[in-house]
Design brief:
four-stranded antiparallel beta sheet, 341 residues, DNA/RNA_pol_sf, single chain, RVT_2, globular, Reverse transcriptase Ty1/copia-type domain-containing protein, alpha+beta, 9 helices, five-stranded mixed beta sheet
Length: 341
């Protein structure tokens, strides 16, 4: 029906439809039976609403303040938009009996490494899978600060232990003290990325890839994920992390193009000089000749000028948050750097 009105689906996201109406781009985001409408002109929005109301049995709820669990707040004076999930957090704290719990400053103790060893958890009494599932939605949508902790907990869904349950409650206690934390976006259209990895930090000696992309001062894409193969060095782990993060950079370029945002070369900040040298050199070396060819496409994208590698110090690396549990000082730095206020 939307296509019959002149809307075209985005190639980057099939749930996003775009149309030019009276010279103004109009965007409709569709999720099941919920629509989100955006345009610079209120007059054009009124015209499109009228078309939609004629085509669908729907209600006009006015300016967006709540959408799919997101709470959206605008500060028109400061020209900022904040996205939070206060209500969702409050609901899960109440559901799992943590409403009156003491808060904590980080979601997981620094340098804590969860393992499969430990006393088994009685899941008929302690709803471990349900807690982690609820936290996963939050970690994916608006709270990158809990991504590493929740990702670590999710690896033990089959056979959780009491240690895992205590760690999950630690994340809930952190949320208790940060319910109002959300991502704040300001003006401009500057895109930049950070990528990082640890080395053999997880069971099976596998490393964790972490990356984040910022737009207008706030995080818009992030990931904390185990690498598919074991890395034999820090540089190799960083190399694979960069390749994984560049895939999302290319997708992000397409999506922003459909949204009318011009994106040039995307700067990618990495704290490994060895990794940057491997990516910018076309020569095969003993460090890279054994790597799967799928990781080498990153070199091509850099050569084509779509991505530019930038060295940053470890102290400035925001993606560090997605590869390991951090001490309070560095954790707070990463939280602020991703626009979480």
């Amino acid at each position: 029906e939307l296509e019959s009105m002149g809307f075209k689906p985005s190639l980057a996201d099939p749930g996003l439809f775009v149309k030019i109406e009276n010279g103004e781009p109009v965007y409709v985001l569709v999720y099941v039976d919920d629509l989100l409408l955006a345009c610079k002109s209120m007059a054009v929005i009124g015209q499109v609403k009228a078309q939609l109301l004629r085509a669908f049995a729907m209600r006009d709820l006015g300016e967006t303040r709540f959408y799919l669990g997101f709470e959206i707040e605008r500060d028109r004076t400061a020209r900022t938009i904040s996205v939070t999930q206060r209500r969702y957090i409050s609901n899960i704290l109440e559901k799992f009996g943590m409403k009156g719990a003491n808060s904590r400053s980080t979601p997981m103790d620094a340098n804590l490494h969860l393992t499969a060893e430990g006393d088994p958890l009685d899941t008929s009494v302690h709803p471990y899978s349900e807690v982690v599932g609820s936290l996963l939605y939050l970690a994916v949508c608006s709270r990158p600060d809990i991504s590493f902790a929740v990702g670590s907990l999710a690896r033990f869904m089959a056979k959780p232990t009491i240690n895992h349950w205590n760690a999950a409650k630690g994340v809930l206690r952190y949320l208790k003290g940060t319910q109002g934390l959300g991502i704040k976006f300001g003006g401009g259209a500057h895109v930049q990325g950070y990528c990082d990895s640890d080395l053999a930090g997880a069971e099976g000696r596998r490393s964790t890839t972490g990356f984040v992309y910022l737009l207008n001062g706030g995080a818009i894409v992030w990931s904390s994920k185990l690498q598919p193969t074991v890395a034999t060095s820090t540089a190799e782990a960083e190399y694979m992390a960069t390749a994984a993060s560049i895939k999302d950079a290319l997708w992000l370029r397409h999506l922003l193009h459909d949204l009318g945002v011009s994106v040039g070369v995307v700067p990618m900040k990495c704290d490994s000089t060895a990794c940057i040298a491997m990516l910018e050199s076309p020569m095969s070396t003993a460090r890279t000749k054994h790597l799967d060819i799928c990781h080498h496409f990153a070199r091509e994208r850099i050569e084509r000028g779509e991505i530019r590698m930038v060295h940053c110090s470890t102290a400035e690396q925001l993606a560090d948050m997605f590869t390991k549990s951090l001490p309070k000082g560095k954790f707070k730095f990463c939280v602020a750097g991703m626009g979480l206020r």
